[in-house]
Design goal:
Elements (H helix, E strand, L loop, with lengths): L7 H8 L17 H11 L18 H5 L1
């Protein structure tokens, strides 16, 4: 069994609210953001679009507009 991220329950609760907001998860590298989101998506049927910026240059923000 994989380690469940501590924020998973909080994010699950927010994704189930009647008001629908775009959720953006940001933070330093290697803290578990991708693991957390993959755990959330495996436990819910929330419509989603998953994008990672791992392989982008920090100065290149044009990918945000493309996505």
């Amino acid at each position: 069994m994989a380690f469940e991220r501590t924020m998973l329950q909080e994010i699950m609760k927010r994704s189930e609210e009647s008001r629908k907001f775009i959720q953006v998860l940001v933070g330093p590298r290697q803290v578990g953001k991708t693991t957390l989101i993959k755990q959330l998506l495996s436990k819910t049927d929330v419509p989603h679009y998953f994008v990672t910026a791992d392989d982008l240059y920090a100065a290149d923000t044009t990918w945000i507009r493309r996505e």
